[in-house]
Amino acid sequence: MKRVLVLGCTGSIGTNTLNIANNLPQDFKICGLQSHSNGKKLAELGTLYNCPTLLTSKDSSAQAYEKLIEESRPDIVVNGIAGAAGLLPSKIVLENKIDIALANKETIVMAGPLIKNLAKQNEAKILPVDSEHSAIFNLVEKIGKENISKIVITASGGPFRTFTKEQLNNVTVEQALNHPTWKMGKKITIDSSTLANKGLEVIEAAYLFDVSSEQIEVVVHPQSLIHSLVRTNDGMLYAQISDPDMKHPIYSALTWPENKKTYLEPFDLFDQTMTFFKPRINDFPLLGYAFECVKMGNCYPLVFNAANEVAVHAFLQKTISFPAITRIVRSVLDYDWSAKLDSFETVFEADKKARELAQELL
Question: What are the φ and ψ backbone dihedral angles of 235, each rounded to 5 degrees?
Answer without folding.
Answer: 95, -5
